[in-house]
Amino acid sequence: MVTIREIAETAGVSIATVSRVLSNSDYPVSQGTRSLIIKVASDMGYSPNRAARSLRTERSSLIGVILDNFTSNWSPIIIRGIQDVLHKNGYFSLVVNIPWETHSQADVVQDLRGLSVEGFMFVETWHPVSERLNMLNNKPYVFVHRLFHQSDPFSVIPDEAYNSALAVQHLLDLGHQRIAYIAGPEDY
Fold first, then answer.
1. Which end of the chain has fewer CB atoms at under 10 Å, N or C?
2. According to the model, what pLDDT value does residue 188 have?
3. Is residue 89 one of the residues assigned to a domain?
4. What pTM did the predictor assign?
């Protein structure tokens, strides 16, 4: 792994100057020196050490994404959207699938906290809610595709009532008259 010390030696500048350029510091560095450092870093294949940066800044840029069933029809689509938005905003996701029968969600949350995630996203999960919120240590969280009636955790959900109305209207437009409705759990 290429270090900023090696870049500084190759470019003939100080380590502090390389650090300032590569971290986009506001500290004034001439455009020529800046261009040289960026070229040398690129030529040497430099990649920032995110673990070191995380220790220095106390920010990991990691979001823990937890789901119960990666094989559902919607989970891969939702995960892809989450990853796209996180990446555009400088974050990375750690996606963990927790089948009910094999792992404790508390253990997974504990493991993710140990990796210094900055927040949690629970995607289409059905584990008990009270178990989750107590172990997050005030980290930001959001539930995706799960509605709560009893409490008010942060949730992002599709407009199921509107979508159902569209589906029923489509069936009526096709001439169907006997339409059945099968509901899932009330807290879905």
1. N
2. 52
3. yes
4. 0.67
